[in-house]
């Protein structure tokens, strides 16, 4: 998972990619998420190979994504277990699993429109996963929406 970006990245997709990398590194390294986040931020600030520079707002959103996943981890895994039939988490590519976890944690928030979440997850899967990862992630997240009783075309609810 090596990549090099030279300019600052901004936007929700960049934040989701950064959050995915933190979650992936935590899972692979057996690190608490907070420690993986601190390490990733340090690597980003020092020009590390893995993390593009994020502007302040994008980094704040990335932190929120990681914190949301950590708070909802049990619910996220429960939804994924109900959705993914015939596969255990151990059988899934870890990139795909962690992309699914991040996206599902966002999809649990009914205030967020699902389409941009799924589109970002598919793009991240194509970038970091295997040849079929994009299709697999798209299909699973469509099933997650059905499991959650959500519609891909729904608009965000007013607060």
UniProtKB/TrEMBL annotation:
GO biological process annotation, one example: DNA-templated transcription termination
Pfam families per the UniProt record, alphabetical: NusB
Molecular function in Gene Ontology: RNA binding
The keyword Flavoprotein is assigned to this record: no
Keyword Repeat annotated: no
HAMAP family: NusB
Function: Involved in transcription antitermination. Required for transcription of ribosomal RNA (rRNA) genes. Binds specifically to the boxA antiterminator sequence of the ribosomal RNA (rrn) operons.
PANTHER family: ANTITERMINATION NUSB DOMAIN-CONTAINING PROTEIN, N UTILIZATION SUBSTANCE PROTEIN B-RELATED
Identification of the protein by name: Transcription antitermination protein NusB
Organism encoding this protein: Deinococcus yavapaiensis KR-236
Lineage, uppermost ranks: Bacteria, Thermotogati, Deinococcota, Deinococci, Deinococcales
Gene name of this polypeptide: nusB
């Amino acid at each position: 998972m090596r990549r090099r970006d030279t300019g600052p990245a901004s936007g929700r997709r960049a934040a989701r990619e950064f959050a995915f990398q933190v979650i992936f590194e935590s899972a692979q390294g057996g690190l608490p998420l907070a420690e993986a986040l601190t390490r990733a931020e340090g690597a980003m600030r020092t020009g590390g190979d893995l993390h593009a520079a994020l502007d302040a707002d994008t980094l704040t959103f990335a932190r929120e994504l990681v914190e949301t996943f950590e708070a909802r981890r049990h619910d996220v895994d429960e939804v994924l277990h109900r959705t993914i039939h015939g596969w255990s988490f151990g059988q899934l590519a870890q990139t795909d699993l962690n992309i699914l976890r991040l996206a599902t944690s966002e999809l649990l928030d009914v205030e967020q429109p699902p389409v941009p979440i799924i589109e970002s997850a598919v793009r991240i899967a194509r970038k970091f996963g295997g040849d079929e990862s994009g299709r697999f992630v798209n299909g699973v997240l469509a099933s997650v929406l059905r499991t959650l009783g959500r519609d891909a075309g729904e608009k965000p609810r007013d607060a």
